[in-house]
Amino acid sequence: MMKDGDNSMKDIVALCKRRGLIYPGSEIYGGLANTWDYGPYGVLLKNNVKQLWWKEIVMKRADIVGLDSGILMNPKVWEASGHLTEFTDPLIECKDCKKRFKGDDVKGDACPECSGSLGEAKKFNLMFATHIGPVADDKSITYLRPETAQGIFVNFKNVLDSTRVRLPFGIAQIGKAFRNEITPGNFTFRTLEFEQFELEYFVYPETADKFFADWADERLRWYVDLGLDSAKIHLKAHDKKDLAHYAKAVTDVEYKFPFGWSELEGIANRGDYDLVQHQKVSGESLEYTDDEGKKVMPYIIEPSGGVDRATLAFLVDAYREEEVKGEKRVVLALDPRLAPIRAAVLPLVKKEPVVTKAKEICDSLRNKFFVEYDESGTVGKRYRRQDEIGTPFCITVDFEGLESEPQTVTIRDRDTMEQKRIVIDQVGEWLAGKIN
Ligand code: ATP
């Protein structure tokens, strides 16, 4: 059954709440618009997204190191980066209904909501300001970082001085960023507080175009490898006239969400803009000295993605509604590497020695995998519950398996619903093979 975009998003939002993936923020107080909290299964999914990125970008590569810089930084950073003056969206207010719109969302000169007359577009800075210390004046002002990238540029010299990196090399980090968006929405797609995974890859200027193209391909491949439908994801180059103030070229990885093609990640050639700016404003030399002693200002290629957007894309892409034996089955067909719970261990009947053995198997898997034990209700209901949170395998313990020699369990595959028998002692290794 096909559903239009709005309906399928509604189903996904409902599933996320019902099954402990994502809850509306501050809900018992009536919520706070466009804030969301990751529940017990959501945090596991999101952690898997982050770990898979970290593994791919930092762990597997000899040329990239990690970093974890602060959310609060010296406000001079935002002066140097251009965010204080340039990180703005045009804000238009309707004179009649007072509703506010982002300039890009308004076509023509009537209010999209009430057809009333619109005021002039004003520049609205998206950074959240805050104050350090007890006095809220201009001297105490600072900002919650709107991107993690600046923490990397500001530590470029520290990393050069304290490690053995040589060009080309990268510094990567995952962390929270904050933007006072004029029109947040579409569930976790655009929120005020979100997480980014950002890589700043420093290169010799003459090699920048090649690295820019390579990183775009590489990043697209990562999403497809983790299961996104290749027909619903593509690269889209920005027009030169639409480029952000720091960029020489940008290509987005876009995914076809139920609400339309939207950016998952941007790959930018930032040139030497950031290092030159920070050198100028800080007065510290940020040049790199090559093996011949020549000074170079590296160019930066930046793949910058949103953890929450990636997580949402994996959720949306995995969501299926099927009919099985006349009943509706909802499944999250997540790649096993992303699945919050790797396997559920279920006693077929609530009787001894089945229950004890099932608990024993579950405990033995627990120090390596997130697994879950469940003995409540019919086995059919338990399967459905695991299907809805995307658990790829259900390990069922029954009398028949315990009476055989060696003892066996059945493993049910989430997607095919087929079951096969496997020797109990081999379950851990079998599962590891499926997840790594
Ligand atoms: P958009 O055009 O959608 O506002 P952007 O081009 O401003 O995004 P970047 O500044 O390139 O975004 O940020 C890098 C990544 O951070 C984006 O690709 C996105 O995945 C994520 N991101 C940016 N803003 C938000 C937000 N408000 N909520 C969730 N994720 C975000």
Automatic annotation (TrEMBL):
GO terms for cellular component: cytoplasm; extracellular exosome; microvesicle. It is an enzyme of class 6 (ligase). It holds the Pfam family HGTP_anticodon. It comes from the Bacteria. The lineage of its organism: Bacteria, Bacteria division Kazan-3B-28. ATP binds at residues 179-181, 189-194, 263-264, 306-309. This is Glycine--tRNA ligase. Its EC number is 6.1.1.14. Homodimer. CDD domains: GlyRS-like_core, GlyRS_anticodon. One of its GO terms (molecular function) is bis(5'-nucleosyl)-tetraphosphatase (asymmetrical) activity. It catalyses: tRNA(Gly) + glycine + ATP = glycyl-tRNA(Gly) + AMP + diphosphate. InterPro entries: aa-tRNA-synt_IIb, aa-tRNA-synth_II, aa-tRNA-synth_II/BPL/LPL, Anticodon-bd, Anticodon-bd_dom_sf, Gly-tRNA_synthase/POLG2, Gly_tRNA_ligase_bac, GlyRS-like_core. Its main location: cytoplasm. It is found in: Cytoplasm. GO terms for biological process: diadenosine tetraphosphate biosynthetic process; glycyl-tRNA aminoacylation. Catalyzes the attachment of glycine to tRNA(Gly). Keywords: Aminoacyl-tRNA synthetase, ATP-binding, Cytoplasm, Ligase, Nucleotide-binding, Protein biosynthesis. It comes from candidate division Kazan bacterium GW2011_GWB1_52_7. NCBIfam families: glyS_dimeric, PRK04173.1. Residues 11-347 form the Aminoacyl-transfer RNA synthetases class-II family profile domain.
